[in-house]
Amino acid sequence: MGTEEKPMQERPEPQETNNLNTQSAPEATPSPIDGGYGWVCGTAAAVTNGHSWGFNFAYAVFLAYYLDNDVVPGSSPMQYAFIGGLSLTSLLAVSPLTTILMRRYGIRPIIFFGVVLKTASLVIASFATQLWHLFLTQGLLFGAGVGLMFIPTAAVVPQWFTANGSLASGISLSGPALEELYIHWPRVP
């Protein structure tokens, strides 16, 4: 009566294979390489960290100068010492803001702005005539500049490594110790 049976279309049976190389892998982002430019980034981070944390750790040199030359007459040694502590506090306090700025603008502009801020703060501090000038420049601005430099360098190095990430991070974070050794080496008796 006009009803024709349509043949069933054959579907190929899925083939099971134990060979992982023949299966197509889902597209993935390229994995970081262990070496090459990653080690350049690690070395640059070590130098950057050395110049940022190294200056903070060497605040005793500034403190000795301030005390010997009585830069701001009538200031106590504790007030001068507070400048170094304020610098470390602002370095760590700026970390959340630095992370937000890194996500928005990337790593390079943030590090560059940190270098400019750190350098400008030390140059402006050399013209200080009152104690609050030093609090603002060498305390707050210098610490903020160092924070803008350190947080990105701590984040960039592990992105280049899969197997040697801990070693590379350790080398990049050893920059301050190497900088201190370099700065104080001529003074060791």
From TrEMBL:
Keywords recorded for this protein, A-Z: Membrane, Transmembrane, Transmembrane helix
Superkingdom assignment: Eukaryota
Biased composition, class Polar residues, residue ranges: 15-26
TM spans (from-to): 78-98, 110-129, 135-157
InterPro entries: MFS_trans_sf, Proton-linked_MCT
Residue span of region Disordered: 1-31
Biased composition (Basic and acidic residues): 1-14
Stored PANTHER family: MONOCARBOXYLATE TRANSPORTER (PTHR11360), TRANSPORTER MCH2-RELATED (PTHR11360:SF315)
Protein's name in the database: Uncharacterized protein
Organism for this UniProt entry: Clonostachys chloroleuca
